Amino acid sequence: MGAEDAASAESFLKPFLAALASFMCQFQLGAILGQSSTMLPQLQAEDSPIRITKEYASWIASAGVIGTPIASVLAGPLTDKMGRKSVIRMHFLLSAIGHTIVGVSSDGTEILIGRVILSCATGFGVPSLVYIPEICNPRHRSPLLFTATVSSSLGLVYVYTLGGILSWDITAMLTSSLAIIGLVYTFIVPESPAWLFRSHRLNEAIDSIKWLKGQNVNMELELRSLKDACHEQPKERVSLLKQFASPTVIKPFLVLTIISFLQNASGFYILLYYSIDFFLEFKSSYDPRFVSVGLAVTRLVSCTVASVIINRFCRKTMGTFSGLSMGVILLGILGYLHAFGDDAAVLSRYSWVPAAGLTLYVFACSLGVHPLPWLMIFELYPLEVRGRMCGISNGMCYVFTFVFTKLYYTFIANFKIQGTILLFMVASVLFGLFSAFVLPETQGKTLVEIEDRFRPKKKPDKESALP
């Protein structure tokens, strides 16, 4: 038994070391996501060497996703053409360049340029998750993918914590250094054996398999499994436009577009991008930097919980519970503001109420509203269009993120904090209702069963219907 345990640990170690490249990539994505939250308050401070308006601040925040839709659409075919590691390297290179430009910026325009480059890095970072299932055994796939999800949350905790202690430019330069370390690391780990085999680079595929699974691996069995996987290719090429018109494509696209829109309208990404500014609207006596770190830690914990339970409950149940719970929590926060919004002394005395409410909101969101659109993108589309349509739906998600983060200050200026929370509450409830009555169930179903769910129901022949 001891020898078996040692062999099992060894078979996990090498794929884990290779997957560190993806983990570092996901860490960067979390850092990019939370960068504006600690940077914007410093730039808007009275003693800031670079002064920006609220309008310009909204451009800096939303610029973090402005190039992501295009980059994520391009990343899919580039991942198949150039290899998994090449696209991951593009992510690290763009991250290093973007953070460096932000770190050495002397005006708002240079910061904006750096943020746009970082948004492109985000798009090229999404396919890093494709690398993990192709380098490990099936039994190790879930823990490695789970670790990648946690890595993104760790990146958010990192940037909130460091950005709350150090100036935004030093934080950016340190994050750039981490991106360079990740870039160098990609030259140590092997390329995906599946991609190498598919690209007719047999000797390199064999070397990659030996690196990942040891010299004594059953190479004949490994190569046969790769050959079988490569046979599962569509025989006939059909234009994407013609495929898009199919009910098995257009219906999932509409479902994913709606839940992605409601996800962003529920305010989750606005809170992540503007956590300090948002909490200041409550006139709380708490330091908003500490609250931001607390929210990031909550997201880390809730992502961990969600990754454990998401395969034990139905997607519809998770979405319904998450959306309606967020609605109830936001209703409580709205009631608190309605009752005491004009009394600064009471708001200061009960500062724990909005802090606790937003913490519960982030926890509830991470159980369904946040992960489901991203998860179901990879479940709903048919195999022959999955790569391209996943890129398009990913791009749509980031378009909505850009729009809502750009409009944050407009919401606050026109609707105040109460109206903005009301918007979040309505969207959260609609997400819950949509999950309950419209969202297709995918948990425990094969991809073929999911695809059949969207096919038009065939009418029975009249002759066969006769008695």
UniProtKB/TrEMBL annotation:
<feature type="transmembrane region" description="Helical">
    <location>
        <begin position="144"/>
        <end position="166"/>
    </location>
</feature>
<feature type="transmembrane region" description="Helical">
    <location>
        <begin position="389"/>
        <end position="409"/>
    </location>
</feature>
<feature type="transmembrane region" description="Helical">
    <location>
        <begin position="421"/>
        <end position="439"/>
    </location>
</feature>
<feature type="transmembrane region" description="Helical">
    <location>
        <begin position="253"/>
        <end position="276"/>
    </location>
</feature>
<keyword id="KW-0812">Transmembrane</keyword>
<protein>
    <recommendedName>
        <fullName>Major facilitator superfamily (MFS) profile domain-containing protein</fullName>
    </recommendedName>
</protein>
<keyword id="KW-0472">Membrane</keyword>
<feature type="transmembrane region" description="Helical">
    <location>
        <begin position="288"/>
        <end position="309"/>
    </location>
</feature>
<feature type="transmembrane region" description="Helical">
    <location>
        <begin position="321"/>
        <end position="340"/>
    </location>
</feature>
<feature type="transmembrane region" description="Helical">
    <location>
        <begin position="87"/>
        <end position="106"/>
    </location>
</feature>
<feature type="transmembrane region" description="Helical">
    <location>
        <begin position="56"/>
        <end position="75"/>
    </location>
</feature>
<feature type="domain" description="Major facilitator superfamily (MFS) profile">
    <location>
        <begin position="14"/>
        <end position="443"/>
    </location>
</feature>
<dbReference type="Pfam" id="PF00083">
    <property type="entry name" value="Sugar_tr"/>
</dbReference>
<dbReference type="GO" id="GO:0022857">
    <property type="term" value="F:transmembrane transporter activity"/>
</dbReference>
<feature type="transmembrane region" description="Helical">
    <location>
        <begin position="352"/>
        <end position="377"/>
    </location>
</feature>
<feature type="transmembrane region" description="Helical">
    <location>
        <begin position="12"/>
        <end position="36"/>
    </location>
</feature>
<dbReference type="InterPro" id="IPR020846">
    <property type="entry name" value="MFS_dom"/>
</dbReference>
<feature type="transmembrane region" description="Helical">
    <location>
        <begin position="112"/>
        <end position="132"/>
    </location>
</feature>
<keyword id="KW-1133">Transmembrane helix</keyword>
<dbReference type="InterPro" id="IPR036259">
    <property type="entry name" value="MFS_trans_sf"/>
</dbReference>
<dbReference type="InterPro" id="IPR050549">
    <property type="entry name" value="MFS_Trehalose_Transporter"/>
</dbReference>
<dbReference type="InterPro" id="IPR005828">
    <property type="entry name" value="MFS_sugar_transport-like"/>
</dbReference>
<feature type="transmembrane region" description="Helical">
    <location>
        <begin position="172"/>
        <end position="189"/>
    </location>
</feature>
<dbReference type="GO" id="GO:0016020">
    <property type="term" value="C:membrane"/>
</dbReference>
